[in-house]
Amino acid sequence: MTGDVTGAGPAGAGTERRYLLVLQPFPGRVLKVGIPDGGVQTLVDDAGAAPDGVVVESGTVYWTTMGAPEVDPGTPGEAGYDFSRRNGGVHAWSPDSNVRRGVVAAGAMTTGKQLASDGAGTLYWGDREGHRVSRVRTDGSGLSDLVVTPASEGVLGECVGVAVDPARGYLYWTQKGPAKGGQGRILRAGLDLPTGRSAEHRTDIEVLWSGLPEPIDLHLEGDWLYWTDRGAAPHGNTLNRAPVPAPGALGGAPEILAGGFSEAIGLAVDGEAGLAYVADLGGHIREVPLPDGPAAGRPPREVAALGTPLTGLCLLPAA
After folding, report:
1. What is the sign of the dihedral through the CA atoms of 158, 164, 165 and 167?
2. How far apart are CA 72 and CA 100, in angstroms?
3. At CA 285, angle to CA 281 and CA 290, rounded to 5?
4. Of 140, 217, 308, 310, which is the most buried if we count CB atoms within 10 A?
């Protein structure tokens, strides 16, 4: 393990963040990527089996792992990987001490996907094959489920992307549906269970969008919800956004901000700079100017091309 996680840029760098963290699932690594020049530094070179979601809180890097799959050598590509074994986890690494620790031990969850933080010491993630959205304190206490979908729903009930809105008390998540299937959904519920209800039997779940190609990771920025979609073109393999709907209302038609990704996964948004970043399984990280931000009018550009699949993505907070 090497390096540091400072996100500060040189004097005069302006509001734009200077570094991203991105996950390399095979082999499992946490990488630091310079936004201006695409330079890559390995922060954690033993991140575990198939890391997928990453956040930074109070200077500590947290990430999920999907766990080691069972592989069918006769089935090519992703279809040959079975992640249904309960061996995913949540992990942490402190650059100050250069110590890695487990937050949620392997065996306590199935498939860790996107990871989000409320900024106050609680982590949230989608557990795809586990059919749930869960949370835990950064010290490993308070592990609990917030949403559990019926096993009978199969792939339709697999939870992947997550975003939290502690100010308004909401949890958002994606259920991507079958690959390129056009049955993806984005849902919302309270950050806490309704009184007398369980994660399996909530009464406050809203389906905001349905019939999406294959929504993956989420990002909430102000009154906008952003998401990646790895479904079929023209609406899939895109970066999308839409205004957050009012309570009880459906989401409006998504606005496609960029397309042509190679299986879009990771997402980070720098609202102040008016820039979004997308990582894909083709090994690319692209920067996309937002149409109503200070970078509007600039063309999208490739930040880095690493040549191996990439999953979770986050901005490094400025020092």
Report:
1. positive
2. 31
3. 120
4. 217
Instruction: Write out the two tokens for 193.
Output: 């269970």
Q: If we measure between CA atoms, which residue out of 193, 81, 182 comes closest to residue 148? A: 193
Instruction: Return d(Cα 226, Cα 33) in angstroms, integer.
Output: 22
Instruction: Reply yes or no on whether the pLDDT at 183 is more than 70.
Output: yes
pLDDT (tens digit per residue) in 230-248: 999 999 999 999 999 999 9
Which residue's structure tokens are 């939290």? 164
- Note the pLDDT of residue 1: 46
User: Which residue reads 């530094």 in tokens?
Assistant: 41
Is the pLDDT score of 12 beyond 60? no
Residue 195 pLDDT greater than 60, yes or no: yes
DSSP string, the chain: ----------TT-TTS--EEEEEETTTTEEEEEETTT--EEEEES---SSEEEEEEETTEEEEEE--PPEE-TTS-GGGGEE--SS-EEEEEEETTTTEEEEEEEEEEES-EEEEEE-SSSEEEEEETTTTEEEEEETTS---EEEEE--GGGGGGG-EEEEEEETTTTEEEEEE--STT-S-EEEEEEESSPPTT--TTS-S--EEEEEEES-EEEEEEETTEEEEEE-SSTTTSSEEEEEEPPPTTPPP-PPEEEEE--SSEEEEEEETTTTEEEEEETTSEEEEEE-TTSTTTTPPPEEEEE-SS----EEEPPP-
Whether residue 234 is preceded by a cis peptide bond, meaning omega within 30 degrees of 0, is yes
The neighbour count for residue 106, using CB atoms within 10 Å, is 19
Which residue type occupies 108? A
Tens of pLDDT, residues 250-302: 999 999 999 999 999 999 999 999 999 999 999 999 999 999 999 999 999 99
